[in-house]
Structures are given as structure tokens and as C-alpha cells.
Specification:
Length: 156
């Protein structure tokens, strides 16, 4: 069962799924609501998943898997019944990103355009930062209790 270390929570989730199986989320031993990231090993390190409502920043050098992890989290959220919005500031077209993601086991084309939305921020950035900010806030509100990810933040 879940154990605590000096560094934080480690172990399994005791939620409606029982031990963490990558299902619809749950709670940690401390009662904190978490959602699976879609990467079971990462969820073990995180104490069951990502804390619901948390701001999570994933950093790393180019090619380290940040975009892949973000989309894996988005598909995990969608499988858990939540909406996911991935806003990309990358220079490549969304079609190229989707083509890159297709070989991954987590990818499900049927979820795109429904519970998983991938949009380019480029269309908003051309209108200025204030307009972009307004659009991002509006899109985030539309997602409700789902997840919003901004990829390529440095590009902004």
C-alpha cells in the first residue's frame, strides 16, 4: 500500500479504481484527488497521478518527450471522462504532430476533435498577446474541470 517518504508520496492510489490501474483517477492516501498521467511508472513516482487542479510544468531539452508526455496525459484524461485541450505554440502543423503521435499505444484517433482538442496558438498569436490571452482563458473555461496544456511555451 501507499507509503510516505521524506520526499513525498509514493505508492498506489486508493480510489474508486482500487489500486492504481490507469483508470479514471482516485485519491491518494492523504485524500488528495489525482488523475492518472497515462504513464503508470510516472504515476507511482507521483503518488498515484497528477493532483487535480495543479499547475504542472514539464521542462526538458528539445526531443526529450515533453510533447509526447503532454499528449499522453491528454488522452489519459479523456479516457477518464474529462476533456483535454492541448494548445501548441510549436511551428509545425498540427497534422504533423498527430502523424508523430499515431504509432503510440495511447493515441486514439476517435478521441480527437471530441474529448481531446489540439489547437495551434499561432492563429491567436498573430492578433497580439492580449487577444491570445483572452482566447486561452475562454478556451480553458470551456474545458471546465478537464485539463489544459500549453506546449511550446518558449515559442510564445
Amino acid at each position: 500500500m501507499a507509503e510516505r517518504s521524506k520526499q513525498g508520496k509514493i505508492g498506489r492510489v486508493a480510489g474508486r479504481d482500487g489500486p492504481h490501474t490507469g483508470g479514471h483517477g482516485g485519491t491518494t492516501r492523504d485524500g488528495e484527488a489525482v488523475d492518472p498521467s497515462g504513464a503508470p511508472g510516472l504515476d507511482v513516482v507521483l503518488g498515484g497521478g497528477l493532483p487535480r487542479g495543479a499547475l504542472v510544468i514539464v521542462v526538458g531539452p528539445p526531443g526529450s518527450g515533453k510533447t509526447t508526455l503532454a499528449t499522453q496525459m491528454a488522452f489519459a484524461a479523456a479516457r477518464g471522462g474529462r476533456r483535454a485541450l492541448l494548445l501548441t505554440a510549436l511551428s509545425e502543423p498540427i497534422s504533423k504532430l498527430v502523424a508523430h503521435l499515431r504509432p503510440f499505444a495511447f493515441f486514439d484517433e476517435a478521441l480527437l476533435g471530441g474529448p481531446v482538442q489540439i489547437l495551434s496558438l499561432e492563429q491567436f498569436l498573430l492578433q497580439g498577446l492580449a487577444t491570445t490571452s483572452d482566447h486561452v482563458r475562454s478556451l480553458a473555461r470551456d474545458v471546465g474541470d478537464g485539463v489544459v496544456m500549453i506546449d511550446g511555451f518558449r515559442g510564445m
